[in-house]
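Methods — Computational structure assignment.
A single polypeptide chain was analysed. Its primary sequence is given first, followed by the predicted tertiary structure written as structure tokens.
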Amino acid sequence: MYKGPERRKYKRIRKRYIMRFSVRPHTEEDEGSRWDMVALVDIGAGGALFYYNEKIEKDSILDLKINFAPERDPIECTAQVVRVEELEYSYMFLVAVNFQDISDEDKLMLIDAAEQFYSRKPRSLED
């Protein structure tokens, strides 16, 4: 796991939200994959991290549905796989994704939730 200085633009919330995802086909001949469900390790306005029991290729595009708050519809967006780490002594993989087309409303909601999680004032997209 990365141990260097923090490079993320947005703070992460380390909480187990439920996410459903499907890997988009790489070519026209490929079939789309099934929808799977995972618990997130963390999430921020820029991306998410989760464990999965199959290897997903780096740069794959995922369709996501994230159950972030019970009082609202799931966050629906696409994401690109930016890192996949095979875990030692396990059949699991740690998968990092960057959101590609998340709405401004959902992004601001995640920024505000992270600020509340860390007890700071809300930020705007211009920050």
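Note: Residues 61 and 80 are 5 Å apart (CA to CA).
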